[in-house]
Amino acid sequence: MMSKGKRVAILTGGGDVPGLNVAIKAVVVRAALNDIEVIGVRRGWLGLLHIDPDDPATAKNFTMPLNVDNVRTIDRTGGTILHTSRTNPGNVGSDEVPGFVAGTDRIETSGGKTDCTKHVLKVLEHLGIDAVIPIGGDDTLSYACRLNREGVQIIAIPKTMDNDVFGTDFCIGFSTAVTRSVDAINALRTTTGSHERICVVELFGRNSGETSLIAAYLADVDRAVISEVPFDTQRLIDFLIADRSRNPSNYAIMTISEGAHPVGGTIRESGREDAYGHKKLGGVGFAISQEIKEQTGINVIYQQLAYMMRSGAPDSLDRMVAVSYGSLALDQIVMGNRGRMVALQQAVYTTVPLDMVIAAKKRVDVTALYDVENYRPKVRDTLGKPMFLY
After folding, report:
1. Could you tell me the domains of the chain?
2. 79 with 40: CB under 8 angstroms?
3. Backbone angles phi, psi at 362, to 5 degrees
4. What is the DSSP letter of 75?
5. Which residues are registered as beta bridge partners of 39?
6. Which residues pair with 201 in a beta bridge?
7. What is the bridge-based pairing of β-strands 92-93 and 113-115?
8. Quick check: helix, strand or coil at residue 15?
9. What gap in Å lies between CA 374 and CA 382, rounded to an integer?
């Protein structure tokens, strides 16, 4: 067990989601009950990369002490008070390595990248950190797996509105993203119906189409395109025209994952790859909208919900899970456990080996939940399924 008086670091990485502050507060409150100090690391893994053990000012800039008093109200808002980044200290661009990182603490890797993990380990030792609680998606937690192999005590908390971290049925942020999406879809019906148009709603979802699928299922849209199933553009357009004609209000509405792509095509991405090899996604919904307009002359409303899905305070379910995950993570550290991720499986709180994050990819169960021919949710059976059917 971790003895009293120890120090735990907590950080958030990747995209922000509602519920991060709730989890941070839960960790701090639980730690106070066990006389454990909590240090917040600013800007995710980037914070540890940019701390110079020989310069106290850098530690002050990239860390903040967390206590019951200064986290008292943070759960009332979304985002993360610790800020975030998509930094991977094991894969840093040569022009992004801080000058103070010693040559012995950097290893050149393929593609002109640099592994600065030795430096991160020295920083953790310098700060007197006994354990780390990273909150993130599969990218952020993949580096947590690396630190775990290096001997750091890690207890991870999964978050992502895509809900695609392998090993857990639920990630912080997913419920609020779906709630925001359903609300927006239902609001868009009034304008779409008033003008007798077709509405294309593009949702976040790089490799997993669960947000598009579940939002479409709950909002009862006409068609839903997901990342896992390539779509035939002409077939989709024909469906939407027929849907519009059948609707007494003479409109149709569909959702689409940003990572979806047509048969024989590729996903739409742009910009420079980040530290985890990803480019910025977006625009597939716009392309479909243009094609519909050009073919049919029907006006189209294209709505890219994007950051609205991850903005604002968490809903009650995300709040419940974030509190429980934060408390469970700190309890695991007190018990002396390491290399674990807190999780929900079949609606039961548990922990799983951290390496599960990188062991496989979590995707929509297309056979059980999706009609491939008609581009629609098709839940064949809910008996025995988790709450979110996933």
Report:
1. 7-172+314-359 (3.40.50.450), 174-309+365-377 (3.40.50.460)
2. no
3. -100, 125
4. G
5. 9, 65
6. 255, 303
7. antiparallel
8. coil
9. 20
Residue reference for tokens 């100090």:
37
Phi, psi of 253 (to 5 degrees): -145, 140
Give, for all 390 residues of the chain, the pLDDT tens digit. Answer: 555 679 999 999 999 999 999 999 999 999 999 999 999 999 999 999 999 999 999 999 999 999 999 999 999 999 999 999 999 999 999 889 999 999 999 999 988 899 999 999 999 999 999 999 999 999 999 999 999 999 999 999 999 999 999 999 999 999 999 999 999 999 999 999 999 999 999 998 877 889 999 999 999 999 999 999 999 999 999 999 999 999 999 999 999 999 999 999 887 766 676 666 666 667 899 999 999 999 999 999 999 998 888 999 999 999 999 999 999 999 999 999 999 999 999 889 999 999 999 999 889 899 999 999 999 999 888 888 777 776
Coil, strand or helix at 231: strand
CA atoms of 340 and 292, how far apart (whole Å): 48
Place of tokens 């695609």: 164
Enumerate the H helices of the chain as residue ranges: 20-33, 45-49, 56-62, 117-127, 138-149, 174-194, 210-219, 233-246, 284-296, 316-334, 356-359, 366-369
Beta partners for 350?
343
- Which residue type sits at 75? D
Q: Can you tell me the distance from the alpha carbon of 186 to that of 17, in angstroms, rounded to the nearest whole number?
A: 22
Q: Which of 165, 168, 158, 157 is nearest to 346 (CA)?
A: 168
Residue-wise DSSP of 167-201: T-S--BTHHHHHHHHHHHHHHHHHHHHHTT-EEEE
Q: Nearest to residue 254, comparing CAs of 215, 200, 299, 181? A: 200
Whole-model pTM: value is 0.94
Catalytic residue IDs: 162
Instruction: Give dist(CA 237, CA 86) in Å, integer.
Output: 37
* Cα gap 269→358, rounded to integer Å: 23
